[in-house]
Amino acid sequence: MKSNNREDNNNDLLASEINDMHSSIDIPDGETAWRRMQTRLIQQQKRSHRKRVFKIGIAIAGFSLIIGTFATSPKESYASMQSLFVMAKDAKQGLVNLLFGERGNSP
User: Fold this and answer.
1) Are 44 and 51 contacting, i.e. CB atoms less than 8 angstroms apart?
2) Alpha carbons 34 and 59: distance in angstroms, whole number
3) Which residues make Cβ contacts (< 8 Å) with residue 96, sequence separation at least 6?
């Protein structure tokens, strides 16, 4: 009987502490928090849009350079690109080793 009464006292004490903690929590205004979140979302969308435009711009510039190079002198361009592809010999774990100069016997 004593232990049961003691558990009830502990439970009542715990419940009162939880109620005190709950009443001391300051809940912010939902409208203000939503406006801040909207501002963050708008900024994130702008950054995402800028990144996408930047990537598209880089792709267009690279494609234009390649087309321009092949349009002006296709034979010489092909030869230079072929030697570049030969120089990029090994691609291991995302690392490309470029070889310059003449090919030699490697051990």
Assistant:
1) no
2) 37
3) 88, 90
